[in-house]
Amino acid sequence: MLEAGQLDLALVQGEVAHEALAGVGRPASKLLIFTAMYTTPGMFVVRGDQPYRTIADLKEQAGGVGARGSGLVVLARYVLDGIGLDMERDFQSTYLDRAGDGPAMVMDGRAAALWGGGTGWPGFAAVGRGPQGARFIAPGTEERARIQTRHPFLKTMSIPAGAYPGQAEAIISVGSWSFVLARPDLADETVYRLAKALHGGESKLAARLPQGHETTAANTVAAAPRPELIHPGARRYLREIGLTPRGGFAMIYEIRTYGLKVGSQAEVIKRYGEAYEHRKKYSELTAFFSTEIGPLNEIIHIWGYESLEERTRIRGAAAKDSNWPPKIQEFITRMSSEIVTPFPFAPLPKPGKYGPYYEFRQYEMKAGTLPGLLERWEAKLSGRIALSPIALAGHVEFGTANRFVHIWPYPSLDARVATRKKAVAEGLWLPVAAPTR
Predict the structure, then answer these.
(1) Are 35 and 177 in contact (CB under 8 A)?
(2) What's the confidence (pLDDT) of residue 69?
(3) Are 263 and 215 in contact (CB under 8 A)?
């Protein structure tokens, strides 16, 4: 239904999500991740008075494995396949018409075991509350290694002690993350607002549901198989709160500089602000400046995108809006646009209280000297930003060749002088690589 566009969002069990996103047995889905919901480490439960201790002990025994076609059944197939077992060949598997039938079958002896997973699963809790209690059987250390060698997408996961009645120790198994997936054309602004609302209430959700503590922004970043599988609206929120995967979300920044007629700046900023109220639903500004020192009568606006393709898509959508671009053409004397790729080791821009003064520095280098610049900057940057933060540092990919840009916020001009003086005195001044100017 998601792929058909009949739903906007849906909870999808981990193995089913893996098969859809990876294209297992079918073309890869274009669905995207809104959030990670909870983990499902798979295991069996047996009555506490039964002799079974390992998965091998359950061979040829009757067991409930869930409703045919359910996500738990798919997980069972992967886990058992990883240790050379087959649900149909090696077990007397019973597919349940109703999930609630499984616990009764175990407790009255019709089934030796019930397959399930995760924290707070009702079937496990019901067996645990039974008169004989419960014992949980998960893959052992060697079995987990075999499973993960064959099916690397399955991760080591655990159920904390006390999650179920009578469970005295943590249970270690393998499993996957269930995700809320979104149709790919769901508006970025809609997903952004949903992500902000959901993750802004993480503590309240965790207080109400045992699994709720797993539904976090941090877990979404950690659980996504690849960063690009997270919906752009959700990625925008994750960037805002400073959460990025290892290596970060790929970003580019377009720096647009407009020269203005003398005396027009106040009116330009007013009109720009009015039009931006309509533009921001497509993507938000990273930064907006007007110049006070250096080239005068300029405004500089910076827009962040994940790729040139996203830039084209968003700009195309915004251009169809009758309220954009701002009606400032009569005041513009010149325009320039440069695409900047951030230095891989530098912090990306994120919302916060900075400035209000920003020093915008640009250097043009001799051709071929960028690698040396990156090495020198990487060695010095962490020490320098300990003195004051950096807003953006990167090299120009499209625009003026062999140029790099760095932008620094300061609370006052006096603070700028003091910070720069201290950086020089402590040997933290950021070097350049053979600049031409």
Answers:
(1) no
(2) 67
(3) no
CATH class of the region 250-338: alpha beta
Work out the number of other CB atoms within 10 angstroms of the CB of residue 219. 18
End-to-end Cα separation, the chain, in angstroms: 58
**CA 178 – CA 9 distance, rounded (Å):** 13
Task: State both tokens at 358.
Answer: 């920003």
Tell me phi and psi for residue 26, to 5 degrees.
-170, 165
Element holding 37 (H helix, E strand): strand 32-47
Q: Which of the two residues, 121 and 410, has the higher pLDDT score? A: 410
Distance (Å, whole) CA 74 – CA 117: 12
* 407, 358 Cβ separation under 8 angstroms: yes
Within 281-419, strands assigned E span: 285-290, 298-305, 332-342, 357-364, 392-398, 403-410
Residues sharing a CB contact under 8 Å with residue 331, sequence separation 6 or more, in sequence order: 260, 261, 264, 267, 268
Name the residue with tokens 């609630």.
Answer: 100
C-alpha to C-alpha distance for 428 and 347, rounded to whole angstroms: 17
Per-residue pLDDT tens for 232-250? 899 888 888 877 665 566 6
Q: For the segment 40-50, what is each residue's pLDDT rounded down to a tens digit? A: 999 999 999 99
Select the CATH number that applies to the domain covering 9-179 from these four: 3.30.1360.120, 3.30.240.20, 3.40.190.10, 3.30.360.10. 3.40.190.10
| Tokens 């998965």 sit on residue | 55
What's 152's DSSP letter? T
The answer to whether 116 and 66 are in contact (CB under 8 A) is yes
Backbone angles phi, psi at 244, to 5 degrees: -140, 150
Over the stretch 317-360, which tens digit does the pLDDT of each residue have? Answer: 999 999 999 999 999 999 999 999 999 888 888 777 888 999 99
| Angstrom distance (rounded) from CA 278 to CA 323 | 6
343-437: in CATH 3.60.21.10:
no
d(CA 244, CA 304): 15
- Contact between 230 and 224 under an 8 Å Cβ cutoff? The reply is yes
Tokens (6 digits) for 287:
């930064």
Q: In whole angstroms, what is the distance from residue 113 CA to residue 132 CA?
A: 13
* 280: number of Cβ within 10 Å: 13
Q: What is the model's pLDDT at position 52?
A: 93
